Amino acid sequence: MRPFSREGMIRLISRRWAVQMIGLLAAVALLVSQGVGAALAAEVDWKLADVNELPAEVTSWAEERHAELGVYVLPGGNKRYLLVAWGEKPSGGYVLSIKDVREAYTGGLAVTVELTAPAWDEQVTDALTYPHQLVQLPAGDDTITVNFIGDPWFGDALGEPDDDDPIVIMQVDGDPIPNPVVIWGRARVWEATFTLVVEDGHYHLAEEVITVATGGPEWAEFAVVLTLYDYSSPSGMAVASYEDARDGSIVEVATKPLAFGAVSRPFPDVRRHWAEASIRRGIWDGFIHGYPDGTFLPESNVSRAEFIKLLVASQVGDVLPSYAPEDLPFPDVRDHWVANYIGWALEQDWISVDDIEGVMDPDGTISRQ
Predict the structure, then answer these.
(1) Is residue 314 helix, strand or coil?
(2) Residue ranges of the alpha helices (H) in the chain?
(3) Which of 34, 185, 305, 312 satisfies CB 3.0 to 4.6 Å to 169 for a cystine?
(4) CA 339 to CA 303: how far, in whole Å?
(5) What is the secondary structure of 197-249 as a DSSP string?
(6) CA–CA separation, 99 vs 149, rounded Å?
(7) From the CA atom positions of the chain, what is the Rg in Å?
(8) 271 pLDDT exceeds 60?
(9) Angle at 5 between CA 277 and CA 340, to 5 degrees
């Protein structure tokens, strides 16, 4: 039997615990704004995804997200998938259409989405619906801008703005936030542009210039998905600001405290790898940490210790009880870094002492069996 490669092992884990590992977006910065009037260049190679041709992991990912209001990206080796979901609607007649995907003159991709709500006198089905579209795009780590036209994406709960309303209202998904993080809300900035920064008290972890559909005093909706790298502290802040046209000073108009989840690492050696989507599920879920030099080594073989550690960490994380050496039946793991993971797996009957002859051989590679 050949040793098990890292990418094959991660695919196995992803299929076994697909539900626990969902909630992962792309390792790219995704900018969403309402109706940006940007000049567009050539069309790109895109198509609406055919559910009958999708890998199982993409189908599971889309099924978990399609009913939640949001924009999500999943990398998939030589392609990536963009899911735009309008959330739960009270009836039929709500239509979400992908009208166009082009290169934006500022770089990256610009996706135009049209939203259509039923007319007041339209005959529609009396049942909850979840309008959404899944688009297949070329691989890459460039920004994706989604421009909404037609009906509002977030709805009209705030009503007409007045002088007492804030300039920017921000909401954040998750506490602690996942990585990537989704920040969304409304803005009424006079030049329709503001800057959003996520910082950890020491460094800028992400920065995006956001252009919304219209300038103040009207509201315009936005949502941004940002990938953050290597926080230096467990908490930080999202800060929205704009440049004062009178003197060039920076005016902060909104802040949002953040608690960070598991540290994300970019792992450049998995980019465009055929197993990238599965590997990044483990990265975002916090049970894949890679090597100190920032690599993942997807083509390397997996040791017995690494495999047990990933199985355990995917279920309960890395905070485990300590096991005394004499409590471990395998002498070759008592002083090994994997000792506590082995102890926990033994308690759960994931490892049977009867199936192992005396030693665990933690640094030996596992077979595909």
Answers:
(1) helix
(2) 6-16, 18-21, 56-65, 276-285, 304-316, 339-347
(3) 185
(4) 14
(5) EEE-SSSEEEEEEEE-SS-TTS-EEEEEEE-----SSSEEEEEEEEE-TTT--
(6) 10
(7) 24
(8) yes
(9) 90
What's the residue count for the chain? 369
> Cα–Cα distance between 222 and 106 in angstroms, integer?
18
Q: Return the closest-CA partner of residue 79 out of 226, 271, 268, 229.
A: 271
Please tell me the least confidently modeled range out of 31-35, 40-44, 152-156, 356-360: 31-35
Q: What is the largest CA-CA distance in the chain?
A: 77
C-alpha pair distances (Å), 58 with each of 17, 105, 134, 238: 14, 30, 10, 30
- Rounded CA separation 242/170 (Å): 15
Residue owning tokens 């940006």 = 36
Q: Which amino acid is at 352?
A: S
For residue 204 the two structure tokens come to 């800028």
Q: Strand 181-187's sheet: what is its strand order?
A: 40-43, 95-104, 109-116, 144-150, 30-33, 220-226, 181-187, 168-172
Q: For residue range 184-230, list pLDDT tens digits in order.
A: 888 888 888 899 899 988 888 888 888 776 777 888 778 776 777 67
| Strands 144-150 and 70-75, sheet pairing | unpaired
Rounded CA-CA distance 306/241 in Å is 44
